[in-house]
Amino acid sequence: MALSAEQSRVAEPLSFESVSQMMLGLLLVVGLIFFLAWVFRRANFVPGQTTGMRVIASLPLGARERAVLVQCGEKQLLLGVSAGSVQLLAQFDEPVIEPGKAAPSEFATKLAQLIQARKG
């Protein structure tokens, strides 16, 4: 049984049609990867991301140092953050600043009051 020329025709591997089909498939796969990464970040499917902790306020103290007030459950933690370490500076059982209502200047004022109170 002889195959006709039309039935035995095989697409050229480097033809424009083959290359464009391959590139379209590649773009779809890469787009799907980026879309799924975005969905996982938004939906908090990534382990270690909890909703129980959030940054209330942050105050830069130097080029790479900052004081950060973190809400952790019912407590607020004042952390000193530098390029190589994170240290607990103070722990507050009652909120120093109400979450969501902190203005940057209010945090700076409260921090300055706390520092003055510690110095005596």
Explained architecture:
The chain is elongated and about 90 Å long. β3 and β4 form a beta hairpin. A four-stranded antiparallel sheet has the order 1-2-3-4, covered by helices on one side. It contains two helices and four strands. It is an alpha+beta fold.
End-to-end separation: 103 Å
Q: Please indicate the percent range of residues in DSSP E strands (runs of 2 or more).
A: 15-25%
Indicate the percent of residues in helices. Answer: 25-40%
Number of domains: 2
Element pattern in H and E = HEEEEH
Biggest beta-sheet profile: 4 strands, antiparallel
List the uncertain runs: none
Structural class: alpha+beta
Instruction: Going across the biggest sheet, name each strand in turn.
Output: 1-2-3-4
Instruction: Round the Cα radius of gyration to an integer and report it.
Output: 29 Å
What would you call the shape? Answer: elongated
How many DSSP H or I helices? Answer: 2
Give average pLDDT, whole number: 81
Q: How many beta-strand elements?
A: 4
Note the main attributes of this structure:
120 residues; four-stranded antiparallel sheet; 2 domains
